[in-house]
Amino acid sequence: MTDEQYMRLAIREAEIAFEKDEVPIGAILVLNNTIIARSHNQVELLNDSTAHAEILSLTTAFNALGSKYLPDATLYVTVEPCLMCSGALYWSKIGKLVFGAPDEKNSYRKYTGDVNPFHPKTIVIGGVLQDECALLMKTFFKNKR
């Protein structure tokens, strides 16, 4: 599958979050062309400010694999990770991160600027299906106002 195809699956996870009145961010974690974890934000459901899609997907993958590192895995997430999630991705040694929409308000770049917060070997690709990912966020927050 292509990055776009995996991102479409992450968008479906984000839509599930949207339907549950969660901030619509979805994630898919892939290893050897196999989806090993999928999640969406569950902050409200779990009453846990750390229950972001990225964190939940990482935890699922660590438990499934019995490993704390994912150097050969790719995480697809609909919105650019926040500082907390980028720290978790750093420690996981994720091989590749693919995100959809940038997040100027809450992303790691707000705090790190041009400094890469990920493991030095992590490949980062942004803007995959950016408009579709951003539309979910815009619609969600427009409905909240």
Draw up the topology in text.
Layout: H1 3-19, E1 26-31, E2 34-40, H2 43-46, H3 53-65, E3 73-79, H4 83-92, E4 96-101, H5 109-112, E5 123-125, H6 130-144
Parallel strand pairs: 3-4, 4-5
Antiparallel strand pairs: 1-2, 1-3
Helix pairs in contact: 1-6
Walkthrough of the structure:
One of its GO terms (molecular function) is tRNA-specific adenosine-34 deaminase activity. The protein has helices at 3-19, 43-46, 53-65, 83-92, 109-112, 130-144, and strands at 26-31, 34-40, 73-79, 96-101, 123-125. Strands 2-1-3-4-5 form a five-stranded mixed sheet. The mean pLDDT is 95. The longest helix is centred in the first third of the chain and has 17 residues, at 3-19. Helices cover 43% and strands 20% of the residues. Helix 1 packs parallel to helix 6. It contains six helices and five strands. The protein is an alpha/beta fold.
